[in-house]
Amino acid sequence: MPWWGIAILLLSCLLFFAALHAAAKNKRPVKRALLSMGSGALTLAAVNLLSGFTGVYLPVSLLSVLVSLIGGVPGVTLLLFLNML
To answer: Is 55 helix (H, G, I), strand (E, B) or coil?
Structure first.
């Protein structure tokens, strides 16, 4: 997938989450959407940084990054669960 396709996908996810937060009547929907997407990315980074201590490693690929951005912390938890199977 070309880089502009990934950028369009991420931007559309951001706009979708902002619309969801706006429908829930949050005061700053874009900020909330960025925070939820950022928390997933930080969780994926934390899992990989702590892999030396825990022995749990998630490979960083386009799929895992998109799942962590779209799903947030539950998305990373899903990746960890699927990795254990």
So the answer is: coil
| pLDDT one-digit tens code per residue, 24-83 | 888 888 888 888 888 999 999 999 999 889 888 898 888 898 889 888 898 899 999 998
Cα–Cα distance between 23 and 54 in angstroms, integer?
39
Tokens 């892999």, residue located: 51
In this prediction the pTM is 0.78
**Residues 73 and 40 sit within 8 Å (Cβ to Cβ):** yes
> Tokens representing 66?
């998109």
- Run of H or E residues at 29: helix 29-49
